[in-house]
Predict the 3D structure of the following.
Amino acid sequence: MLIEQVNNILYIFAILGFIFIIVAILALLFWGKNNKIINFITRNSIPLAFLISLMATLGSLFYSETAGFAPCDLCWFQRIFMYPQVILLGLAWWKKEDIIINYSLILILIGTLFSVYHNYIYYTAQPTGFCSIVSPCTQTYILGFGFITIPLMAITAFVLMGLLLLNKKFRN
């Protein structure tokens, strides 16, 4: 029951993330520079990215430690680049230091590359050296609304954080 409740919460956040990505791209392309929504997002980019990284970290820990889902090797590599974000972005928010964005973006880029590869393997069922018999990269533990998976949630978190922080970096 708890797993189902957490899944539903994470599915909703994933869908909100998809919507946010689309709206953010459209806003950056078509809205003026002084749009209230863009200004709000820019002012709150670091706290929003922090909350996304915290949610992704807690979600991955819940799935492995409480639900008992064995993370594949690619999941571990993504975790390596997601978990420090909580500390980096938390410090950036607390100390109001935007310079940390540069370090965070490097981790996000590398994590996103692993996530893209993981999604490619997952959705095409390509054999790879990363997959193991114990915890295969193509294992479907959850499937929300017929398409939301753990790899899809991971790439959504990385892309959202990247968009938020790039927006903050280039609009300051």
